[in-house]
Design brief:
Alpha-Beta Plaits; elongated; 2 domains; 15 helices; Arc Repressor Mutant, subunit A; alpha+beta; 7-stranded mixed β-sheet
Length: 335
């Protein structure tokens, strides 16, 4: 049986077999829009020739699809062209931020995340050699006297060196709404910031505002996550353990959907008071309570195999007993 156009679109973003993704496409694009998306990439003039429509009609439709988050602008050759979202992440993040998205649309996305995404995530883990994202450590936790802090290891420096910065709502918390963590918490930098400002799906912020968002996120126990590339990247997400695409599956199933930072936490046993604050802060069960049989005192100890190097345990340590030290080489982050 021939696939309908929405199933073909699902194939194009590498989610063949999903029953929910075609319905999401159907909710947000009519058949004419779907046909135009499948004809992409191209300039409005090229797409008009492919589809047999007038250039004016196609250009207007392309702008609509761009604002919906289904199409992205391309600037190759000096002319503005359009291309369809390339994968599930682009489809998810861009369309959820569209102001016209309905609660029903959000709820269907959440159903996909709960019902179908775990199996697709397991396939992605096997197919791709490295995760697309990685943890960035809390900078104040790094033992700066022991190692050089690279720009790519520093959320602060990513912000400080950006030419444009914006903040958007966290798409995961928008659809899942499982916690009361801040929603306007995803920082976009460079071209990603320019894109969200142009679409009207985020707002421009100063470097000072962005750094404050980072500080609030750290205090509330959100993990900084960025692109897993040896450059500044396009975003800094501030992720919770319940709504995020990746973290719940990393925590519950141990899936390799997120690389750790180059760092790991260390607890100075002479300073640790055993208060257990870090124990409750760690998403990854990387801190154990160890009792001294002679004294009867309890101390906290890091399980290096589980530590993702986020540094959130350090932020609220009342004894300043925790620091981060580099345990992975610079080339751990893909070039």
């Amino acid at each position: 049986m021939a696939k309908d156009i929405y199933e073909q679109m699902t194939d194009k973003i590498m989610l063949t077999g999903s029953k929910i993704i075609p319905e999401l496409f159907r909710m947000i694009a009519d058949e004419s829009e779907a046909g135009l998306l499948m004809a992409m990439p191209g300039t409005p003039e090229q797409l008009a020739e492919k589809t047999g429509q007038s250039a004016d009609v196609v250009e207007k439709a392309c702008r609509t699809l761009y604002h919906k988050g289904l199409a992205f602008k391309s600037f190759r050759g000096g002319a503005v062209g359009y291309k369809m979202c390339r994968d599930m992440i682009q489809f998810h993040d861009a369309t959820i931020l569209w102001p016209g998205a309905s609660r029903a649309y959000y709820d269907l996305w959440q159903r996909f995340m709960e019902v179908e995404w775990p199996d697709f995530a397991r396939l992605a883990e096997q197919f791709f050699p490295k995760p697309f994202t990685r943890v960035i450590p809390v900078e104040q936790a790094i033992d700066s006297g022991a190692q050089k802090i690279l720009d790519i290891d520093s959320a602060n420096r990513i912000i400080e060196t950006a030419d444009t910065i914006a903040v958007t709502k966290c798409t995961c918390r928008v659809i899942a709404h499982k916690c009361d963590m801040p929603v306007e918490a995803c920082i976009q930098v460079g071209n990603a910031a320019k894109y969200t400002i142009d679409r009207g799906t985020g707002r421009a912020v100063t470097k000072e505002e962005a750094l404050k968002i980072l500080a609030v996120s750290e205090e509330k126990g959100l993990v900084h996550v960025t692109m897993n590339k040896a450059h500044a990247g396009h975003f800094i997400c501030n992720c919770c353990s319940c709504c995020c695409q990746a973290l719940p599956l990393v925590i519950s199933d141990g899936l390799k959907l997120l690389d750790p930072s180059r760092y790991a936490a260390f607890i100075d046993q002479t300073l640790c008071s055993g208060c257990e604050t870090c124990l409750t802060r760690c998403f990854f069960s990387a801190i154990d309570q160890v009792r001294n049989l002679e004294s009867g005192d309890s101390k906290m100890q890091v399980n290096a195999d589980k530590c993702m190097g986020c540094g959130l345990c350090q932020v609220t340590c009342p004894e300043s007993a925790i620091s981060l030290k580099a345990v992975r080489p610079e080339n751990f982050i893909p070039d």
